């Protein structure tokens, strides 16, 4: 009787050991590609990351040197413009969902927002092409901003709703108890309390959109020159990365890796910032 | 005056909020409408079913457009990527939630966020310059040469080993969608009440047994939701796949050969479709993609919300 | 607060840009001449001190034609001139002519990646067609070995690479194949985008060159400059007169030694010229004769800048052609092109005649 129990115990012990090994192995597998990508990006691209990379524009194919200034600036501009376009809608949707939970629109809003969140980015580009590029008669940074803005709206809505629902109800009750109207409670009490989380959500949406290239293929279009006017075609880092990657020029390949590093660095920074900002306890 | 401030203010605010939020609804509806309208030329010519099941995509001679190769490509690539990524993702979630010490878990969670945020083009870049050549040289070419000598009957099934094809696309995609399953699974596992764990431990269960008997059954919904979310992302993934999939118009039936997915054919051909019918066919593919994506996302959202409500009810 | 400052600064800068009257000419199209176009754009932007900037995106000839028709660009670029159907469409929709101005000559070469094979291989049109039809599957196939008796061809499978996008280079290549292989003409045909029987697709000349470069045993077709700039091995092709010719400036120019029609729409493939390379082609700029019809041209200043730029391409710009291994226009061709440009008007004003006449 004791012998059977011993055997059973030993078997369970080994199963436990085995599962631990499998889980550890699985975890390693899960992160393997991330490390490989980062490692290769560092090895191949670090060489091209000099000051010129950030200060000079692109050279014609076959000519060495130059940099990707036009793409870096373009990324910031198109993404920033898109964020401005998306903020009112995304924030409003999030506030509605969190602060007016009984509103009849909510279930539909939530469902559609979640669905839009998973939409392929290229479809937003298609929509922006139809709605902005065609009527405008040309490609432009603005149409790219619209495409990215469309992308960011559901992201902002979800993160805003999430953050606002974490604000303790006591805050709202206190405001109402003081006789403040509801809109005042939201604007002056709830939103400022959630400010860190809101900014985090905005940063994350910005970072996500900054890495998109597919929706910009037929909206922002690309450019070898630094362009500050959003009514003209503009270049972004992911667009340029794509074009360089499929090209046959060595120099361009190296620049593509460097661009990848810059993007990597940017999102790492944003993620770290987000984690730090959301450490506040209520 | 006070009436104005409170009553009127509330009404105005709520109205503004509503109008802006309706913008989100409008976005979804607009997307559906414009895609349908743009694709109507092609859909009208071939019929919705005819277009979706048609196998020829010939802009030059036949001017026939059928999206089935791309639908099939999307299904094969996404489902395979999901299957491949599911267990590593689950393992990572279990590890981060139960086995790892706190400091390691923090790092792992950060890495998961990072993985989800890495742009598609960067994965694609790695795919073109590292994964594809490696697969070709270490796996496909040797296999192909072996088959050429010993089993030539297999050759049509294998296809030409270029490194650009379904295999590479599936591997890259699987790596990209790991964080979606992992994050949701981790959250679901973390949400299981402490009492359940402690009860199991109290009965003498090992860590794995606790996981298997007490935690996973309760976390099942969240894990499933994570899988659906990952599937949704896989379906819509454009550039990384476009860069390594080989871009063939034919039905994907070879192991090594090229293929295409719905997003990849749009990315490749959109700016260049000269014929109106061709352009409309591409937008129609976009419309189909929208439908598929909506179906998967709906399901994911439904499962997720139901899981959330379930957990809130339990707590 | 700081964000507002940044925003204001940007608006000011952009406004300054607008005030400075910098014009940006946007063109799109063929990847075939992209290295040359990029050079033109770079030089011209420098020449005008940045006042006129040129942004050319290589998205394929199909793209060039499409965006030209959609009027989202100032000029299109394509290796295939607009066909009769398209010209008619432009005439009917916009009540003006579409002009095809040839500005350079290029060659499509068969590039391949065969480590260990030193000398350039020889191909014939029919053999190339068979490779792309999937009938010749390995490098040591007797059809290829026959043409290259002195070379030890490896038993590697042939990885066929073609274009995944709408391409004038594809048009030139498939047009040639259709001329030399009846089977190709019947099964596949010619076009900027065809249903390729076999092979993987690369995006743009750049994409095809990239794939061939990375894949031992691959064969593709690209513009000569792409082969040279990337040290890709390319083969000699047998022309109509039976000679095996490697594409170079001499054989490209010889191929163009045929009578030129007034509208410059001519096919140079399978040329009758005895020393002519058989897969050569003009590459064209697409312009509306009446620029006011083009929605992308927003002002007379833009129209002028456009005409000036094109005139520069056809005259001083030609000096950049040969160093990049594109053929320059012969005096006759240049005359024809300038004559076409002279027809351009804007809001009734004969800009073309005025600027070309100077």
TrEMBL record, chain A:
<feature type="domain" description="ABC transmembrane type-1">
    <location>
        <begin position="72"/>
        <end position="274"/>
    </location>
</feature>
<keyword id="KW-1133">Transmembrane helix</keyword>
<feature type="transmembrane region" description="Helical">
    <location>
        <begin position="256"/>
        <end position="277"/>
    </location>
</feature>
<dbReference type="GO" id="GO:0005315">
    <property type="term" value="F:phosphate transmembrane transporter activity"/>
</dbReference>
<keyword id="KW-0813">Transport</keyword>
<dbReference type="GO" id="GO:0005886">
    <property type="term" value="C:plasma membrane"/>
</dbReference>
<keyword id="KW-0812">Transmembrane</keyword>
<keyword id="KW-1003">Cell membrane</keyword>
<feature type="transmembrane region" description="Helical">
    <location>
        <begin position="20"/>
        <end position="43"/>
    </location>
</feature>
<dbReference type="GO" id="GO:0035435">
    <property type="term" value="P:phosphate ion transmembrane transport"/>
</dbReference>
<dbReference type="Pfam" id="PF00528">
    <property type="entry name" value="BPD_transp_1"/>
</dbReference>
<dbReference type="InterPro" id="IPR005672">
    <property type="entry name" value="Phosphate_PstA"/>
</dbReference>
<keyword id="KW-0472">Membrane</keyword>
<feature type="transmembrane region" description="Helical">
    <location>
        <begin position="109"/>
        <end position="133"/>
    </location>
</feature>
<protein>
    <recommendedName>
        <fullName>Phosphate transport system permease protein PstA</fullName>
    </recommendedName>
</protein>
<dbReference type="InterPro" id="IPR000515">
    <property type="entry name" value="MetI-like"/>
</dbReference>
<keyword id="KW-0592">Phosphate transport</keyword>
<comment type="similarity">
    <text>Belongs to the binding-protein-dependent transport system permease family. CysTW subfamily.</text>
</comment>
<feature type="transmembrane region" description="Helical">
    <location>
        <begin position="139"/>
        <end position="157"/>
    </location>
</feature>
<feature type="transmembrane region" description="Helical">
    <location>
        <begin position="71"/>
        <end position="97"/>
    </location>
</feature>
<feature type="transmembrane region" description="Helical">
    <location>
        <begin position="185"/>
        <end position="207"/>
    </location>
</feature>
<dbReference type="InterPro" id="IPR035906">
    <property type="entry name" value="MetI-like_sf"/>
</dbReference>
Automatic annotation (TrEMBL), chain C:
<keyword id="KW-0813">Transport</keyword>
<protein>
    <recommendedName>
        <fullName>Phosphate-binding protein</fullName>
    </recommendedName>
</protein>
<dbReference type="InterPro" id="IPR005673">
    <property type="entry name" value="ABC_phos-bd_PstS"/>
</dbReference>
<dbReference type="GO" id="GO:0035435">
    <property type="term" value="P:phosphate ion transmembrane transport"/>
</dbReference>
<dbReference type="Pfam" id="PF12849">
    <property type="entry name" value="PBP_like_2"/>
</dbReference>
<dbReference type="InterPro" id="IPR024370">
    <property type="entry name" value="PBP_domain"/>
</dbReference>
<comment type="similarity">
    <text>Belongs to the PstS family.</text>
</comment>
<keyword id="KW-0592">Phosphate transport</keyword>
<feature type="domain" description="PBP">
    <location>
        <begin position="22"/>
        <end position="314"/>
    </location>
</feature>
<dbReference type="GO" id="GO:0043190">
    <property type="term" value="C:ATP-binding cassette (ABC) transporter complex"/>
</dbReference>
<dbReference type="InterPro" id="IPR050962">
    <property type="entry name" value="Phosphate-bind_PstS"/>
</dbReference>
<dbReference type="GO" id="GO:0042301">
    <property type="term" value="F:phosphate ion binding"/>
</dbReference>
């Amino acid at each position: 009787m004791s012998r059977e129990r011993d055997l059973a115990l030993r078997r369970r012990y080994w199963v436990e050991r085995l599962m631990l090994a499998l889980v550890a192995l699985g975890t390693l597998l899960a992160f393997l590609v991330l490390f490989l990508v980062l490692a290769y990006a560092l090895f191949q691209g670090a060489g091209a990351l000099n000051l010129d990379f950030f200060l000079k524009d692109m050279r014609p194919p076959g000519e060495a040197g130059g940099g990707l200034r036009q793409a870096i600036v373009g990324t910031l501009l198109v993404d920033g413009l898109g964020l401005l376009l998306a903020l009112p809608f995304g924030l409003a949707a999030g506030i509605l969902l969190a602060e007016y939970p009984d509103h009849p629109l909510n279930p539909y809003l939530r469902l559609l927002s979640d669905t839009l969140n998973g939409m392929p980015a290229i479809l937003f580009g298609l929509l922006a092409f139809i709605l902005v590029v065609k009527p405008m008669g040309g490609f432009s940074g603005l149409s790219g901003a619209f495409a990215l803005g469309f992308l960011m709206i559901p992201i902002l809505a979800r993160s805003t709703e999430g953050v606002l629902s974490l604000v303790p109800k006591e805050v709202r009750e206190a405001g109402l108890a003081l006789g403040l109207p509801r809109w005042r409670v939201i604007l002056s009490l709830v939103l400022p309390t959630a400010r860190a989380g809101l900014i985090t959500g905005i940063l994350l949406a910005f970072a996500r959109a900054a890495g998109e290239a597919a929706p910009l293929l037929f909206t922002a279009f690309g450019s070898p020159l630094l362009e500050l006017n959003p009514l003209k075609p503009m270049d972004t880092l992911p667009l340029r990365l794509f074009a360089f990657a499929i090209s046959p020029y060595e120099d361009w390949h190296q620049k593509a890796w460097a661009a990848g590093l810059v993007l990597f660095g940017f999102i790492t920074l944003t993620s770290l910032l987000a984690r730090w900002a959301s450490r506040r306890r209520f | 005056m006070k009436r104005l401030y409170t009553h009127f203010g509330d009404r105005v605010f709520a109205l503004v909020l509503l109008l802006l939020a309706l913008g989100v609804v409008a976005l979804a509806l607009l997307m559906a409408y414009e895609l349908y309208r743009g694709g109507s030329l092609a859909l009208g010519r071939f019929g919705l079913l005819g277009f979706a099941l048609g196998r020829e995509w010939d802009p030059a001679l036949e001017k026939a457009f059928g999206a089935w190769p791309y639908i099939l490509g999307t299904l094969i690539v996404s489902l395979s990527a999901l299957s491949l990524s599911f267990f590593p993702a689950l393992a990572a979630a279990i590890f981060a939630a139960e086995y790892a010490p706190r400091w390691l878990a923090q790092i792992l969670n950060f890495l998961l966020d990072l993985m989800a945020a890495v742009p598609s083009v960067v994965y694609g870049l790695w795919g073109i310059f590292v994964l594809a050549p490696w697969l070709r040289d270490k796996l496909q070419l040797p296999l192909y040469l072996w088959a050429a000598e010993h089993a030539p009957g297999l050759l049509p099934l294998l296809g030409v080993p270029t490194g650009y094809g379904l295999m590479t696309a599936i591997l890259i995609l699987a790596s990209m969608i790991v964080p979606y399953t992992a994050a949701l699974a981790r959250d679901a596992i973390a949400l299981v009440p402490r009492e359940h764990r402690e009860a199991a431990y109290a009965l003498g269960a090992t860590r794995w047994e606790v996981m298997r008997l007490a935690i996973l059954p309760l976390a099942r919904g969240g894990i499933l939701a994570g899988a659906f979310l990952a599937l949704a992302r896989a379906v819509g993934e454009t550039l990384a796949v476009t860069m390594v999939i080989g871009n063939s118009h034919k039905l994907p039936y070879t192991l090594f050969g090229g293929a295409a997915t719905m997003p990849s054919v749009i990315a490749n051909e959109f700016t260049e479709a000269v014929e109106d019918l061709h352009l409309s066919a591409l937008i129609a593919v976009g419309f189909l993609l929208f439908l598929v994506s909506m179906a998967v996302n709906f399901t994911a959202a439904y499962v997720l919300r139901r899981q959330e409500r379930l957990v809130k009810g339990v707590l | 607060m700081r964000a507002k400052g940044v925003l204001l600064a940007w608006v000011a800068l952009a406004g300054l840009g607008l005030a400075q009257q910098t014009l940006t000419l946007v063109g799109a199209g063929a990847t075939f001449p992209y290295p040359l176009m990029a050079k033109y754009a770079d030089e011209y932007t420098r020449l005008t001190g940045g006042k006129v900037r040129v942004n050319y995106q290589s998205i394929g000839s199909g793209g060039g034609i499409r965006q030209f028709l959609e009027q989202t660009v100032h000029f299109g670029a394509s290796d295939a001139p607009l066909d009769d159907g398209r010209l008619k469409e432009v005439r009917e929709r916009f009540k003006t002519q579409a002009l095809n101005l040839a500005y350079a000559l290029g060659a499509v070469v068969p590039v391949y990646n065969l480590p260990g094979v030193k000398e350039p291989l020889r191909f014939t049109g029919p053999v190339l067609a068979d490779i792309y039809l999937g009938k010749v599957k390995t490098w040591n196939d007797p059809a290829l070995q026959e043409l290259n008796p002195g070379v030890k061809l490896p038993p590697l499978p042939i990885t066929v690479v073609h274009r995944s996008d709408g391409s004038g280079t594809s048009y030139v290549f498939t047009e040639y194949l259709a001329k030399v292989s009846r089977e190709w003409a019947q099964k596949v045909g010619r076009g900027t985008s065809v249903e390729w029987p076999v092979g993987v697709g690369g995006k743009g000349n750049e994409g095809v060159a990239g794939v061939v470069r990375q894949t031992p045993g691959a064969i593709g077709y690209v513009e000569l400059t792409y082969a040279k700039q990337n040290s890709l091995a390319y083969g000699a092709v047998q022309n109509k007169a039976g000679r095996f010719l490697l594409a170079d400036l001499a054989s490209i120019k010889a191929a163009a030694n045929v009578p030129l029609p007034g509208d410059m729409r001519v096919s140079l493939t399978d040329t009758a010229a005895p020393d002519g390379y058989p897969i050569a082609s003009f590459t064209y700029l697409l312009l509306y004769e009446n620029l006011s019809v083009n929605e992308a041209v927003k002002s007379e200043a833009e129209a002028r800048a456009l005409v000036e730029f094109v005139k520069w391409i056809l005259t001083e710009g030609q000096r950049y052609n040969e160093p990049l291994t594109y053929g320059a226009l012969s005096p006759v061709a240049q005359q024809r092109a300038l004559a076409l440009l002279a027809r351009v008007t804007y809001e009734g004003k004969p800009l073309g005649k005025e600027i070309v006449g100077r």
